[in-house]
Specification:
Helices cover about 70% and strands about 5% of the residues. It is mainly alpha-helical and about 220 residues long. A 3-stranded antiparallel sheet has the order 2-1-3. Helix 4 crosses helix 5, helix 5 crosses helix 8 and helix 8 packs across helix 10.
Length: about 220
């Protein structure tokens, strides 16, 4: 697996960067998101990271699609970073961070240390991946704090879903503990849907006001 991915990435340099480009050209800012600069090297690393995490071979046929995904990923991270810095958000769910790392490693049939070594072998920073995850988790914490008092749940809808789930799982009416667990899970799902809606709305509003320049 590791060797396969490494071979893929050797050719990425030739697909996206010209060998004769100078260090200054590679480090040139190509996009500005508010006060947040994105360099050509940032883009190159993001392309490599996407290739690793998704286990894709980058070819002439898909390189523009991967490049566009990388550009959007960097812009999204920049917008979120500016916002969490504006609100001085530092807290995040450490358990969720571990789950994200474990999931990323598991998708590549690796453990956490194996993922770290794979990134190092491809001149990518493990800390940068962690930082990327933290931005999303801090954003989630910020959205929760901002909108938690605006979450309203339709109790009738939840009860209907609960009854359907009880019937589907054939849970006995006397199994109160199991029923309560199912209800708790349904309520959590509904809250997460609401928070995702607020998150998308908040981000869309920022996208309209943050100045994004392609240089």
């Amino acid at each position: 697996m590791k060797k396969k991915i490494f071979v893929y990435l050797v050719s990425i340099f030739f697909l996206f960067l010209r060998p004769e480009q100078s260090f200054a050209e590679i480090n040139k800012v190509i996009i500005s998101v508010g006060t947040y600069p994105i360099t050509r090297l940032d883009l190159f690393k993001e392309i490599k990271l996407i290739a690793i995490i998704s286990n894709q071979e980058i070819t002439e046929e898909n390189k523009e699609r991967i490049k566009n995904l990388a550009v959007q990923s960097l812009i999204t991270k920049a917008i979120k970073t500016l916002e969490i810095e504006r609100y001085k958000v530092e807290k995040f769910n450490k358990t969720d961070l571990e789950n994200l790392i474990t999931s990323a490693a598991k998708n590549l049939n690796l453990d956490k240390n194996g993922l770290k070594q794979l990134l190092i072998q491809n001149n990518l920073s493990y800390e940068s991946l962690i930082s990327k995850f933290k931005v999303d988790l801090k954003w989630n914490s910020m959205i929760f704090d901002m909108y938690k008092n605006r979450i309203s749940l339709n109790t009738v809808e939840i009860e209907n879903k609960l009854n359907l789930e009880i019937k589907r799982l054939e849970v006995g009416v006397n199994n109160e503990e199991r029923i309560e667990a199912i209800k708790k899970n349904l309520v959590s799902q509904e809250k997460n849907k609401k928070l995702k809606m607020f998150s998308n709305s908040h981000y869309s509003n920022l996208e309209r006001v943050v100045q994004i320049k392609f240089l």
